[in-house]
Amino acid sequence: MSDEQPEITQEIRVPEDLAQGVYANGFNVWWVETDMTLDFFVNLPPEVATGGDGKAILVVPQQIVARVKITPGMAVYAGVQIAQALAQYESHYGTIERLKDQPPLIPPSVDG
Q1: DSSP H helical segments within the chain, as ranges?
Q2: What range defines the domain where residue 66 resides?
Q3: What are the CA-CA distances from residue 39 to residues 13, 19, 42, 48, 94 (Å)?
Q4: Could you tell me which residues are beta bridge partners of residue 48?
Q5: Which of 10, 62, 65, 69 has an alpha carbon within 20 to 30 A of 37's alpha carbon?
Q6: What is residue 74's predicted lDDT score, i.e. its pLDDT?
Q7: Does residue 47 belong to any structural domain of this protein?
Q8: What pLDDT is attached to residue 1?
Q9: Is residue 98 in some structural domain?
Q10: For residue 74, is it within any domain?
Q11: How many whole angstroms separate alpha carbon 64 and alpha carbon 84?
């Protein structure tokens, strides 16, 4: 009998219903002491609504398409992995243009 330890490898399996993934154009993080929640969302078309004072307001709805809960330690690890992946991406494809906060490009009129 040998004292050698067997080689250990990881095999990541993706369930068929998750294999395609989802598109998100927004991201938010919130936390409690024990975990961090990562919400990925898509911006939906702006809508005109009526505020509590009766005035028209522009609402930009955001639909969550995925919510992932991780430990703070895993969040640190994810941040390192994402930073490394971005550096590799930029060395291959060039600098990524940084996003800026912008209002909707063509909001509907709130004049009525």
Answers
A1: 72-93
A2: 22-93
A3: 23, 19, 10, 25, 28
A4: 58
A5: 10
A6: 96
A7: yes
A8: 58
A9: no
A10: yes
A11: 26
| DSSP annotation of 86 | H
**For residue 33, what pLDDT is reported?**
95
pLDDT of residue 68: 96
Kindly give the confidence (pLDDT) of every residue in the chain, 112 residues in length, as a single tens digit, with 9 standing for 90 and above: 568 899 999 999 999 999 999 999 999 999 999 999 999 999 999 899 999 999 999 898 999 999 999 999 999 999 999 999 999 999 999 999 887 766 555 555 555 5
Residues 6+ apart with CB under 8 A from 67: 37, 38, 39, 40
84-112: burial string, b at 16+ Cβ within 10 Å, e else: eeeeeeeeeeeeeeeeeeeeeeeeeeeee
Is residue 105 in a domain? no
Question: ∠ CA(79), CA(84), CA(88), 5° rounding?
Answer: 145
Type of residue found at 16? E
Structurally, the chain folds into a number of domains equal to 1
Q: Give strand pairing partners of 49.
A: 57
